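G., the chain you wanted modeled:
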Amino acid sequence: MQHLDETTRTELEAAAFRRLLDHLDAHKDVQNIDLMILADFCRNCLSKWLVAAAEERGAELDYESAREYVYGMPYAEWKAKYQQEATPEQQAAFAARQARKQENGNA
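Predicted structure as tokens:
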């Protein structure tokens, strides 16, 4: 992608991000804890990254607005409709991942 000008690269990155959000929206059955276990990020992380990016650029974006954008609806509504209680197996897998991160100094 080095051959692309910055504007084109930014537009492609933005399009890929929007497609990721569409993909996550189409797969609401994939729980945030599953994403955290497998990829060490979730929908809430994306929201926090948006807020951080806004802050870096001097733009105003609060966390709840970012979450509504990422989730496609208010977080409380998404949580009530789609979020399931984490199973003991998911909790154990998440704890193991966190422990590995601690061991590797990636906390």
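The chain has one domain: 6-103.

Shout if anything looks off.
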